[in-house]
Amino acid sequence: MFFAVTSLLLACSTEKNAWINRAFHNVNSRYNGYYHANQSLEQGIFTLKTSHKDDLGQLLSVFPYGDESNRKGIFGQMDKAIEKATKVVAKHSMIHKIRKEKREVTNWVDNSYLVIGKAHLFKAEYGEAHKVFEYIEENFYDMDSRFDAKIWDIQTYLFQENYTEAYRLIKNLEEEEKFPNELVALFNAVKADYFIKNEELGEAIASLERATIQEKQKGKRVRYTYLLAQLNEQLGNQSEAVKYYEQVIKLNPPYEFSFQAKINMALGYSGGDNSKIKSVLNKMVKDEKNKEYLDQIYFALANLELNKGNIEAGKEYLKLSAVSSVENKDQKSQSYLQLGDIYFAEPEYFMAFAYYDTCVKVLPRDHVEYDVLVGKRDNLKDLVQHYKIIEEEDSLQNLVNMSEDERNELIDRMIEAYIEKKEDEADAKEQETLLALNNNGTVGGNNSGGAWYFSNQSAIAQGRSEFMGVFGDRALEDNWRRSDKSSAGDFGGPDIAQTGQEEGEIEDFSEDEEAQRDYYLAKLPMSDSAYTASVDRLLDAYFNLGMVYLEGLQNRPLALQTFEELLKRSEDSQFDAQSRYILYRLNKQLSNSAEASKYERSILSKHPETEYAKIISNPNYFKELEKAKNEANRYYQQLYNWYQNEDYSSVVNQGEPLYEKYKGTKVAPRILLLVVMAQGTVLPQKEFVKKLKNIQMIYPETSASEDAGVILLRISNSKRLDKKKAQKEFESNSLYKLDRMDLHNVIIMLDSEKANVSDFKGEIADFNTEFFKLIPLNVKSIVWKDNEQMMIVSGIPTAEKAEQYYKAIQSEGFMDVVKNNGSLYFITSQVNFKTLMKERNLSDYMEFFLNSYKMVEEK
Q: Partner of 181 at 20 to 30 A CA spacing, among 253, 290, 644, 710?
């Protein structure tokens, strides 16, 4: 007994390199420490893999490790692995001199170090992981673990996105002669990961193929094979991709891999006989477990049809895909996007807009095509709006030019067409929904199977579900489609009208606003001014439509057609010169020499002073313009230097002729502003303000205009401070007091001999209804004295609103009778109005008005 205990104690020692010592520490390190450390590590990695959700529609990662946020959940297991493995190293490490070199003689210490390094890696403690792996490489150079450590060191660099160091270690390992066979699969998988992350897909495929051949675990072979198919797809190697997808299916993988492989095979198909793939997909449609994947199956069927040139069948499958997609927004967006692209290419721009618009609402904002799609959608939105304006204004003008009987007859036909269209849309929507819900049907009527519907309990249950989704929970009774059954019940007969049409099946659109004559008659531009405005809107829409075709959609033939139509409509519009120049350029680009020459001649004859004529007449026009611009900039800099040095006379004397010389350049507004600012040093303030406002009027969208506005604001603020001071002094001596939050009136004085008071009152009321309908205004007139009438607009809530009203009314035509006769119009508060009526002294009040309200200066 004593001998056994003594032997055990001697075996525990790490100081002696004897067989019994090595055996003791090998056994204990393996089964007491390393086993539990490695178990904890593997359990953590298993948790990581099982919690990782692959998106099989996107390129798979080589290793399903997730990101740092996913890996936080296994920190506890990694800590336990480090703790257990560290104890193995501390208790069982035996370093002795072998052949004049010190080395580890316990077999499982290097493996324990590997566990520690991996655990640090999964905890994102990359520095610690590198130290451990490098320690293994340096101290266990005659063991296979050093290769393992270097592979994991590469992975650590890949986690850090340090691709330079990762590549250095890959090249280092490739030069090793005694590389262990059991690590070939892992090494090639890591290499593939490196090449994928560096977008070297050809190299990635080569490495992954070697990894797949060497890999013994079925799950990894499935993953690598699927990834090989995806990589070949990205490189356009469709036949290779299909080959690998077929291999995935033969490996009998998890269902989602098998399903997606079949879908991707169909999506990658191009040319040849597709009947086999189509048959597989149609079987998948009928399989109950694929119900939630119908959108993807229909999308794949659409791809098969489109690649065979069956565009209409392809569209129908895409529509089925879109309406079948409930949770999968990505698939829904793909279907809508492809429908939009098909209609865009035809081109059927109205339909393309509808699908693009719907797609934008479901497409993720980070999608690679999101911005491009939004641009297309917006261009088409503009196009649709311009078309609607053209269609509407054309129709209205045609109606105006008809007799009353012809007009009413045409309007009635338009109403009939509207109702029929709405009924067709409602019916089509219901049919499309029912068709999408029917999982047993396919496009083209292919509904093989032969089983009677009512013998299929699954189909019955599904049918009930579909019915509930479309019609809701209806009682089993006559007239079940109708929400109001009183009319049928009153007569005790079937729910059929005398015309034979079933009531309640189709919504009644005859009560819609667009189904009434008044809807169309109210819009008719019957007066000359209204008709002119309609023509202007029509021409404006044509021009903008042409620009959408030209610049937004880059469809030259349709742009040319649109601008030609614009010129047919009017040769005297504001768009004439520009439209002719666009047609000149378009015809040149389309090699229509005769047409180009025709428009060239018309521009030179009709619009000789325009820039378009100058461009045609002078091939060097733009070069000369650029030269003038550069010269103008140099002169402007000289003027600016003079202004900085307060040499205002030089600025004015040199600046005025320079402005006239370079009036057509972009620097002209800046030159003029410098001249005006120099003049402002000697001009009266009123003249200076006038010149600044002139700059704003001539060059409204320029930096010079903005700077002039800043100066005017400073002057105004200064005047306002002076005015406030004067106002306080004035109010202290006045009968009238300014309360801007009191109710206000706008008063208009009329001479009843020169103006029809009743008509004027009606025009004021119409003006209020059109422009101030949100404010409940009242209009009344009272006699002021003799023939002078006072028209009172009351109910204005504040002084600010009264000022807005006062400003708005000044430009109205009916005010000419007031202005031409020198009559007054002004603002009063309710309190001040009572004082005015009591005092009857209009002169005193006008003095108060001129000093108190803001827009009087403009008047």
A: 253
